[in-house]
Specification:
Length: about 350
């Protein structure tokens, strides 16, 4: 009998055949062992991924105040993302109605709008640190099926931009002078909280009227933290890619790439000008700050009054106007170190309200 080309009749060949069979056996054994080790490694890796995700969810559960949602839950709540109520820097925002009847706003980060998981996780981690009545809060989030979704407080009356600069907004009536002052104070309080009370401080980097959401005519919340940055000592900060919106972005930040809390102060100055004039942050090819520079830096009250939004029909407190223009001028100075802090701005606004008896509805 022949086996592997060797005759089994020859005793010497039996040793060779046995050796060949032993090698074959070891080869099969090692292959099976390698397969099982590979399977075990893959399973362990998957388990580690799941564990990291569980740890992330538990870490960000915030004592039950913020919860995680499945993609299917938020898809159902938004009726398959059918009612778009806003557009963010990296996202679309949809109206959602939860199973318990509450309304929310689902921010869906979109890769085609340069959204990324890093931006999403940065925003989640920042929102979990914050709690203030004038900031849009987070109700939950979703990291499921490749989606990155935030469930945020629903603020029903659209944005300040829509109210002031769109036809639909105009049909809801004109924001009065006292309305505008109250909104300005709310956003100043929000920024003051971010800069002075949050730990670490937070630089919003994208303050603009479309990110100011109206609770009603008198009160507002600041939203969209997709571009925010944790505060730091500007003297040790390495310049970064400039983020923000043209017309609102700090001129010093544009030149140096160094962002500080005073960059938000500059943007706030532009927002004040927007509330005073009723104009958008960009006028043709120039910014509102440039467009109004001659009027707002004048010492002539009658010229300053000419800045007022015509839709107000002159119904504004002139002393209050002078005070707001002065705050805007100080916020817009080129040297960021000379700009006031948001805490100082809040104090000046509150003082103006008390001195000039401008009623703020609470």
């Amino acid at each position: 009998m022949w086996f592997f080309g060797f005759s089994t009749a020859n005793p010497k060949h039996l040793w060779i055949i046995a050796a060949i069979l032993f090698v074959i056996f070891l080869t099969i054994l090692f292959r099976r062992l390698a397969f099982h080790l590979d399977q075990a490694s893959t399973t362990k890796e998957e388990e580690l991924k799941k564990e990291r995700k569980r740890n992330f969810e538990e870490r960000f559960s915030c004592g039950g105040l913020v919860r995680t949602y499945s993609f299917e839950e938020l898809k159902m709540a938004t009726k398959d993302f059918s009612i778009r109520i806003g557009v963010g820097a990296t996202s679309f925002v949809y109206l959602a109605q939860l199973s318990d009847g509450r309304y929310g706003a689902v921010k869906r980060v979109m890769p085609e709008r340069r959204g990324s998981k890093k931006i999403f996780l940065d925003e989640v981690s920042v929102l979990l640190r914050l709690s203030h009545p004038n900031l849009v809060g987070m109700m939950g989030f979703c990291l499921d099926k490749g989606e990155q979704l935030l469930l945020l407080d629903y603020v029903p009356n659209k944005s300040l931009f829509e109210r002031m600069h769109t036809h639909r907004g105009q049909t809801l009536g004109i924001l009065s002078w006292s309305n505008r002052l109250s909104i300005a104070l709310d956003i100043a309080n929000a920024l003051n909280y971010l800069h002075s009370e949050a730990d670490p401080p937070v630089i919003h980097r994208d303050l603009k009227s479309s990110n100011v959401l109206l609770i009603d005519n008198n009160h507002a919340k600041l939203g969209d933290f997709g571009l925010c940055k944790l505060g730091h000592d500007p003297t040790t900060h390495t310049p970064s890619v400039v983020k923000g919106s043209f017309g609102y972005t700090d001129t010093n930040y544009l030149k140096t790439g160094q962002v500080t809390t005073k960059s938000d102060v500059y943007s706030y100055g532009v927002l004040l000008l927007e509330l005073i004039t009723g104009l958008k942050s960009v006028q043709g090819s120039v910014t509102l700050a440039e467009w109004t520079e001659e009027w707002r830096k004048t010492k002539k009250v009658e010229v300053m009054v000419g800045m007022l939004d015509p839709k107000l029909n002159g119904d504004a407190n002139i002393d209050q106007l002078i005070s707001l223009v002065d705050i805007a001028n100080s916020a817009l100075v080129e040297n960021y170190k000379r700009r006031p802090t948001m805490s100082e701005i809040v104090d000046r606004l509150v003082s103006s309200v008390e001195i000039f008896k401008i009623e703020i509805v609470v």
